[in-house]
Amino acid sequence: MQVANTGSSVKTSKAGQTPVRAATPVLRKTGKLAPTVKATPTTRVQAKVKAPGRKTAPAKAVKPTPASAAKPPKLKLVRDSFTIPRNEYAVLDALKDRLVDVKRPAKKSEVLRAGIALLATLSDVALLAALEAVPAIKTGRPKKAK
C-alpha cells in the first residue's frame, strides 16, 4: 500500500496503518536531498499495536528454582602486587613444574592461594616458626639494576 507521494519515498509499516519514510533520502524536484524523518514515539506505538483478530503466543510458565540449585554468589577478586626474592620466585616456578608433572597444571596465583590455605591450617606456634624461616625484605618496588 502506498501513500500519496509528495516527492519523497514513503512506505507503510507492516500493519499497513502508519506511513514510514524510507531509510535513504530521495532527490526532490529542487535537486536537494530530502530530510530524513525519524519515527516519532506515536508511530512506534501504533506499529506495535496488535492487529485485530491476531492471536498472540501464550506466555511461558517460569519454574521456580529450589534454593539448593541456586548459583553461589560470585567472589569479588582483589588485584595486588608484591615483591619476592628471585630464589623464592624460582621455587614458585619449580612448584608449577611439579604440578605439570603430576598432570595438574596450575597458575602462580593458584599455587600461592594453596600455600595461604595451608598456612591457615597451622597452629600459632607452627605459623610463627614458618614466618621466622622467611627473611624480611624491604617493601616497595625494587630499584632498577644498571
From TrEMBL:
Feature: compositional bias, Low complexity: 55-71
Positions of the UniProt region annotated as Disordered: 1-71
Compositionally biased region (Polar residues): 1-16
Name listed for the protein in its UniProt record: Uncharacterized protein
